[in-house]
Amino acid sequence: MALKNYEFWFVVGSQFLYGPEVLETVAARAEEMVEKMNASGNLPCKLVYKVTAKTNKEITDVVREANYAENCAGIITWCHTFSPSKMWINGFANLQKPYLHFATQYNREIPNDEIDMDFMNLNQAAHGDREHGFIAARLRMPRKVIAGYWQDEDVQARIGSWMRAAVGVAFSKTLKVMRFGDNMREVAVTEGDKVEVQTKLGWQVNTWPVGKLVETMNEVTETEVDAKMAEYTSLYEMATDDVETVRYQAREEIAMKKMLDAEGCMAFANTFQDLYGMKQLPGLASQHLMAQGYGYGGEGDWKVSAMTAIMKAMSEGQTGGTAFMEDYTYHLEKGNEYSLGAHMLEVCPSVAAGKAKIEVHPLGIGDREPPARLVFEGKAGSAIVVSLIDMGGRLRLICQDIECVKPIMDMPNLPVARVMWRAMPDLTTGVECWITAGGAHHTVLSYDVTAEQMKDWATMMDIEFVHITKDTTAEGLEQQLFLNDLAWKLK
Ligand code: MN
Known about the structure:
Layout: E1 7-13, H1 20-39, E2 46-53, H2 56-68, E3 72-79, H3 89-94, E4 99-103, H4 117-122, H5 125-138, E5 144-147, H6 153-173, E6 176-180, H7 194-201, E7 204-208, H8 210-219, H9 222-235, E8 237-238, H10 243-263, E9 267-269, H11 284-291, E10 295-297, H12 302-314, E11 322-331, E12 338-342, E13 357-360, E14 372-375, E15 381-390, E16 395-405, E17 418-423, H13 427-437, E18 442-446, H14 451-461, E19 464-468, H15 474-490
Parallel strand pairs: 1-2, 1-3, 3-4, 4-5, 6-7, 6-9, 8-13, 9-10, 16-19
Antiparallel strand pairs: 11-12, 11-18, 12-17, 13-14, 15-16, 15-18, 16-17
Helix pairs in contact: 6-12, 6-14, 8-10, 9-10, 10-11, 13-15
């Protein structure tokens, strides 16, 4: 489902104590707030006013409805007045959708002349939201709390940002991942418990034989390849005369897309160790699929593939770009340290600074023909890198803040896409923290998705979250990981 088709339900808490007039005013204002917030353009999804809830049954009913509504990606609550929270327990106990508590109030300012006890009875969010907050804390509910004035752009933007994370939850719960072959032999970090991942995150991760892909490739017609070639030349610069090699990538892409779409898969993984019957490792083919929103993981890394797809779904319509990435090599010049990220071939062109070039070069690894690939430089800007690892018994999501730069050298003989960045807090401390936390060599790099969104997503998914920022120290992180380990054993 596309991002714009999801909606969030606005549920306002109250009670009968204040009489019908107050309740009518609350309902009318809730509708007005929803209308104005939708019109602001700051929310990526529609907000729908559902009910001013006064009873246990009204809350239980709206929660039941939200749980079953496929297009409802979460509920947002607020208490204009006081809403005794025991009436929320039965509903909240059954809530299966993301939940945001929006602590706001209808009026921005205290009206000096007008304020009297009628005003006080109607405008009680300051203590109504505290009663509401207590019960969610007591129930240990995963939730997001956002406080601020509802007409402020920055407040609306934060709600919008959380909505995107919640859509990532909805997307995750129905995500199917197609594995062409197994993981690269002997590699540990790309392994994982698929049953645990399906239970926790919803992912259906299954395998399809490479032979089936080769069969599908053989069925692709020249006309289909012609159309794909026209697409390539409209988007990218053809920097090779070896048209046949590029056409072979087109054939691979068409076949993979057919298989993915037939199974409803939005992510896939393959490995250069199992290309049985294929002439080239898919390079351009995988890159162009990623540009269309599919997740990809190299060397059979289905976890990074799924995370790429989820983060692309969360950032749909944004323009910064999200890509499968790998830390490749360092520049360790004192005071000018950088990481160089790349892959054998498969970096998504959504992160390219300019028009990507289609080139053909031999591959140092594997025993296939030189594959066509997109070569480009990544853009400058703030970004994050994210890695999901299986700790055995639980999943850990690691996120590091990075600052991407225009690569400080042009590397004319490097035949792959490249991105250069400065990891936080600095390269060596950042590397120490990443390695201490067990982060993989594969990551998802995103200029669009924020660390706060990934934290929100991890909270909603009930998995561990580790964030390496400009303020992180190796000692502090070690301490946090030690405590997390204890806490997650008890959970
Ligand atoms: Mn790799």
